[in-house]
Design a protein that fits this description.
alpha/beta; TIM Barrel; 2 domains; four-stranded antiparallel β-sheet; 10 helices; 12 strands
Length: 277
């Protein structure tokens, strides 16, 4: 399972040589209750991942969720409680928090961006600009926040990008080759950077036309040219500050690398709240 592999690698970073501090101070018999608390407002994400981290270290740790993924959590609220060996809780602490903090950051941003898109009937989706090795978790967090996933891997859909076009010689040649092999069922998306390329993509029979790194005014011009003959996706240079201006163009989809590649993690902390003799 992918999650098991991710957690195994993450724990190896901390525990491959043991925990010199905790192993010296505590015995395996000492137990405690701990709580994870939000230190800022956030959309919670990563609860199952955190559970799997603690259980990978020690299956006997009792995991008590107080919130669930997708919940809006206010600063100071507890999201879960743990009971078990002090050693186990401390050894899993940082890895579990790292996952939860990153995933909650992505989910929180996705909630905000998806809400802007909803106002204009525009679907907000992610890209493959994810943390290496963590794509499944990053994209899960996007869905929890309310945005949507673009392709997860290169096998998921046909997307003819600038380098494909450059190597093939033209948009027409690339689309023709694709359609001769894959048949009529899969949709074909073509990346374009100007009106001339949009016209060529339309002539080639593209189902989805990506308008890459265009201004809102350029997008409106291309949208008029496309005139409903293809799904319009906008990508490149879209961020929190300008998202609304791109949504106002009325395109179908906006894909944002900013959903995953530069979202700040949210702050959660784990504290031992009771020592059990």
């Amino acid at each position: 399972m992918i999650l098991d592999k991710i957690i195994e690698l993450a724990l190896e970073e901390d525990l491959s040589l043991g925990d010199i501090t905790s192993d010296t101070i505590f015995s395996p018999e000492e137990r405690a209750i701990a709580a994870i608390t939000a230190k800022e407002d956030l959309v919670l994400c990563g609860m199952n991942t955190a559970r799997e981290v603690f259980h990978a270290v020690d299956e006997s740790v009792i995991f008590r969720p107080l919130k669930k993924d997708g919940d809006w959590v206010k600063k100071g609220e507890r999201v879960l409680e743990l009971e078990g060996r002090v050693l186990s809780i401390l050894k899993a602490e940082r890895t579990a928090l790292n996952f939860m903090q990153r995933m909650s950051g992505i989910a929180t941003a996705s909630r905000e961006y998806a809400a802007i898109g909803q106002k204009y009937g525009v679907m907000i989706v992610d890209t493959r600009k994810t943390q290496p090795g963590l794509r499944r978790l990053d994209k899960y967090a996007v869905r929890v926040g309310g945005a949507r996933n673009h392709r997860i891997s290169l096998a998921d859909s046909v997307m003819i990008k600038d380098n494909h076009i450059a190597a093939a010689g033209s948009i027409m040649r690339a689309v023709k080759k694709i359609k001769s092999v894959i048949g009529h069922t899969p949709k074909v998306e073509v990346e374009t950077t100007n009106l001339e390329e949009v016209r060529e993509a339309l002539s080639a029979g593209a189902d989805i036309i990506m308008l890459d790194n265009m201004t809102p005014q350029e997008i409106l011009t291309c949208k008029k040219e496309i005139a409903g003959r293809a799904i319009i996706e906008v990508s490149g240079g879209v961020n929190k500050n300008n998202l609304e201006s791109y949504c106002q163009t009325g395109v179908d989809v906006i894909s944002m690398g900013a959903l995953t590649h530069s979202v700040p993690s949210k702050d959660l902390s784990l504290k031992i709240v009771q020592y059990i003799k």
